[in-house]
Amino acid sequence: MAITKSKKNELVAEVSNLLSTAKLTVFATCNGLSVADMQDLRRQAREAGVVIKVVKNRLVRVAMSENKTYKDTDTSLLTGQLMYAVSAEDEVSPAKVLDEFAKTHPALQFVGAFGMEGEVMDADAVKALAKLPSKNELVGQVVSMLLSPVNDVTNALSGNLHALLDGVEAKATA
Questions:
Q1: Which fold has domain 5-132?
Q2: Of 16, 17, 30, 68, which one has the fewest beta carbons inside 10 Å?
């Protein structure tokens, strides 16, 4: 059943809004996924702050042409039935969510992605991006690295203090 022009306009506005705030938009084929699989994927994506949309490619192209960032972006990869995973919070979470889901559902295949500057990435680049740690994981690693010297100094001083106390105790008992 065809959708009305007003519904198409609503979808274009919604996709345009998603693209304008997106840090990364990953698109993948979803042929062969059941409704239950899609619901499971949407639940996992929602937990990671990712929005999953299945929209006609033509409507996505219209939304992109209305957005100054994506106006000149190559849309030749947008063919077939695609799902779009969009995140306004994290640059790698859409790729990570789809990659994790694809491990148990081989019907999901990466096609490409659009970065926040309008650049196009192919499927291999998206897979590589999915292997990167998330923003929170990177922050944790940096904090850990910054605290490492402090912990080392504390442990060294603590060790020497224990040795000194052991020596004093040994002298006192002798």
A1: Alpha-Beta Plaits (3.30.70)
A2: 68
